[in-house]
Amino acid sequence: YIIEALTQSNIVNTDGIKELIPELKRVGNNLNQKRS
């Protein structure tokens, strides 16, 4: 779902993706911390 949303947003507005990238990295870091 997230990938599809990113793809659609990328077509509409690349600036939105630039704002989402840091959020995705933050979420990824949180998931990694919970696993450890």
Q: How would you sum up this structure in a few lines?
A:
The chain has 36 residues and is mainly α.
Provide structural commentary.
This is Mobilization protein. It comes from human gut metagenome. There is one protein chain. By secondary structure, the protein is mainly α. It has one domain. The protein has helices at 2-12, 14-35. Helix 1 (2-12) runs antiparallel to helix 2. The protein is elongated, with a radius of gyration of 12 Å. The termini are far apart. The model has no long low-confidence stretch (mean pLDDT 72).
Mean pLDDT: 72
Rg estimate, integer Å: 12 Å
First and last CA, distance: 25 Å
| Percent range of helical residues | over 70%
Low-confidence stretches: none
Q: What structural class should be given to the helix and strand makeup?
A: mainly alpha
Q: What are the secondary-structure elements, in order, as H or E?
A: HH
Shape: elongated
Multimeric organization: single chain
Instruction: Let me know the largest β-sheet.
Output: none
How many runs of DSSP E, i.e. beta strands? 0
What's the structural domain tally?
1
* Beta-strand percentage range: under 5%
Helix count from the secondary structure assignment = 2
Protein name: Mobilization protein
